[in-house]
Structures are given as structure tokens and as C-alpha cells.
Amino acid sequence: MIIGMQCIIRYGFFIPFNVEFTLSVLGFSFLVLATVLIAAGGYIINDIIDVTADKINKPKRRVIGVSIDLKRGKLLYYIFTFGGLGLGFVLSAMIQKPFYFLIFAGTAMALYLYSRFFRKIAIVGNIIVSITIALSIIIVGVFELFPIVDDYNSDIQMLIFGILIDFSLAAFLLNFIREIIKDVEDIQGDHVARYKTLPVILGAQRTARIASVIGLFSLTLISWYTFTYLYDQKVTVAVMFFGIIAPLGYVCTQLWEADKKSQFTKLSLILKIAMLIGICAIPLISYTLENAS
């Protein structure tokens, strides 16, 4: 999803607006690969540290400690993470923006701290993961748009980056809701592992209703954006409504009734599909906004 999302942003969002690119195809490949490797490393270290909880939460889907032992898992974590950091360092040097490397380093550190400490703390871990998802969108604009901003193109470059921020905010909200639902889904294993997640502290039902309220807030924002900026294109509105707004509304209502692990798993999957539809709809949204402007 990260690879598809970043490619769609560059080729399906930036190009229709005729924005200037900083990166060559090789440079963009480094950006995508660095992001994916660091994200993969984050997943691996999370599975390593979560091995006790995962024995209960996902006994049939475990990889670390089953098909891959802990020692090899740690080796893969270092290979993926430092491979991504290395590519990020080279890319930052290529565009002569060495401080941009801190984005990669900060993300890798945040993912490690999440797995080691913040995963066990209510809300904090959910926010960190959701920020990293949003950052995987924003980083494309940072590397492609900012380095070549000048007096002649600053208006269009900043306009496009502002829309990119809108996309990242939607991704943050949807993923934040999904992370809370996943915590409800994993409440048994997290309780055994002594994690202080929101469901462990407040209970599954109360947490699900909190997620529903956040979902209704997100639903309001996405609906307002759709009918304010995209209303001229009926196809775009239909895709947004049936692909994102309606599924999110369904999730919000079901969160008040769900009480089984399988139900929360289904709701988490629906949100994941809605996020995927949102990614695929970016070129359509770009076309609509470009015509409106």
C-alpha cells in the first residue's frame, strides 16, 4: 500500500497539476524503497517485542518465533532498517538537503520506541503509528516539491502540498480509528502482556464507542471536504461516498453493537479497504481539483 500510494501521489496527483519534480526516477525509487524498508523494519521489531501478546492475539498468523526465530528476526530488522536509513542518507545527499535525512532517522526511531515503550501506553502508540502513516504521504511532497520552490512556482507548489496535507490528515484519522479497533481486537493478549492500552484500561465496549465518536468526527470532515471541493464531478463524489464515507459510517454504527473479536476484525478490514479505495481515488480527486482550479 505504501508503494502504491507514493507512486499514485507522484504520477497520479502531481503530474496533472504540472508541478516541478526534484527527484529523478532513480531518486524517487530510493525514496519509496527507503520508506518501505523502514516500515518493514518497524513491523518486524513490533512482532519481536509483541511475541507474548501475539501468541494469544494471532496464534495462526505469527511469523516471529514460528517460521522465523527471534535471532533471525532481529537480523532482518537491522538489515531492513539500516538499509532504509542508508538509502535515505544517499537520497538526502543527492538533493543536497542533508537535514532531510532526519525524517528517515526520526521515523525509524519512533517505530522502535513505539514497539519498545509506547505500544503499551493508551492512545500514545495509536497516535505514533498514525503519524508515521501520514508522514509516508507528506514525505513525497517534502522531497519532490520543497527543494525546487522559488519565486515563480511557490504558489502552485504550496497549493499542491496543502492538498497533500489534506490527504495525510484523512489517512491519519482513518488509521487512528483502525488502530484503536485493533487494540480492542487484541485486548486478551494485551492484558496478558500487561499492556496499558485503552481497551485494557476502559474496557472493550467503552473504547469501541470512543472510536465511533472519532469516526463520526472524521466522517463529518471527509463529507464536508467531498461536497465542498469535489461536488462538480459526480463520479468523484460517488467514489468518495460509496468507497469511504458509507463504509466509515457503517463502521461507526457497528462499533456500538460489536462485542466479538471477529466483528472487530471485520470492521478493521473494512477501514483498510476504505483506505485503499482512498489511495486509488487520488488521481480522480486530482483531476476534479485541477479542473475546478
Question: What would you say this structure looks like, in words?
Answer:
With about 290 residues, the chain is mainly alpha-helical. Helix content is about 80%, strand content about 0%. It has 13 helices and no strands.
Main features:
13 helices; flat
Quickly count the helices.
13
Strand portion: under 5%
Span between N and C termini? Answer: 29 Å
Radius of gyration: 20 Å
Report on the biggest sheet. none
Principal-axis shape: flat
Give the tally of β-strands: 0
Q: Percent helix among the residues?
A: over 70%
Q: Indicate the low-confidence ranges by residue numbers.
A: none
Write the layout of secondary structure elements.
Elements: H1 2-14, H2 25-49, H3 51-57, H4 70-94, H5 101-116, H6 124-144, H7 154-185, H8 187-192, H9 198-202, H10 204-229, H11 234-254, H12 261-280, H13 282-292
Summarize the structure in short.
By secondary structure, the chain is an all-alpha fold. It has 13 helices and no strands.
